[in-house]
Amino acid sequence: MGTLPRLSLIQACAVALKSTIFKAELSIADMDRGYYATHALTIAQHPSETDERMMLRLVAFARHASETLEFGRGISDEEDPSLWQRSLTEEIELWIDLGLPDEKRIKRAAQRANEAWIYAYGGSAADIWFGKNQSEIRRFDNLHVVSVSPEIMSGLAGLIERTMQLQCTIQDGEMWLSSDKGSLQVVVKEMG
């Protein structure tokens, strides 16, 4: 009888870690775009993804919501964006990334999609990242970069529950996200 191979501690932890599943009923009233819908969402939170980042994915979904917008594999697959919208012919209409992507990923998003968005976060690290990448970012008319403050990120984490009922209202460029746990004005600022 053969012996089983020993796993290193890192391998054992990687095998043991699985995504945490969250359910969200997200009701959106976007008066700016005339979009009103309720989406039943299942969100898989990767073991390395923070609560703040996962909630930012929900915010990005709400700001760009459509019947065909979907979550990408994001963290677990570097080829996928955090969210995307594809046409029936698989053309990428919208690519949304979160965080501080490298120059190669910025270029890939802008070249592959009709419209690309980056939701940068991390406080001063986001400002430094933008300063380093602004010439590449400005090359593309279809690329939009917004920043989300650490205070907003923290507030988003305060709304998290395994099963969420969220209401999102967008009017005159202002976004409010609320649940039984509270309400938060979600401010994103155009970088540049």
Could you name the key traits of this structure?
5-stranded mixed β-sheet; 6-stranded mixed β-sheet; alpha/beta; 29% helix; disordered N terminus
Describe the structure.
α2 (51-64) packs across α5 (150-157). Helix content is 29%, strand content 39%. It starts with 8 loop residues before the first helix and ends with a strand. The protein is an alpha/beta fold and 192 residues long. A six-stranded mixed sheet has the order 3-4-5-6-7-11, sandwiched between helices. Residues 1-5 and 7-15 have low confidence and may be disordered. Pfam families: YaeQ. It comes from Silvimonas amylolytica. This is YaeQ family protein.
Rg calc: 18 Å
- Ranges where pLDDT stays below 50 over 5 or more residues in a row are 1-5, 7-15
For the biggest β-sheet, the strand order reads 3-4-5-6-7-11
Strand element count: 11
Relative helix content: 25-40%
Shape label: globular
Class based on secondary structure composition and strand pairing: alpha/beta
Q: Percent of residues in beta strands?
A: 35-45%
Mean pLDDT: 90
Organism: Silvimonas amylolytica
Pfam families: YaeQ
InterPro entries: Restrct_endonuc-II-like, YaeQ, YaeQ_sf
Protein name: YaeQ family protein
Describe the structure concisely.
By secondary structure, this protein is α/β, with parallel strands linked by helices. It has five helices and eleven strands. Strand 8 and strand 9 form a beta hairpin.
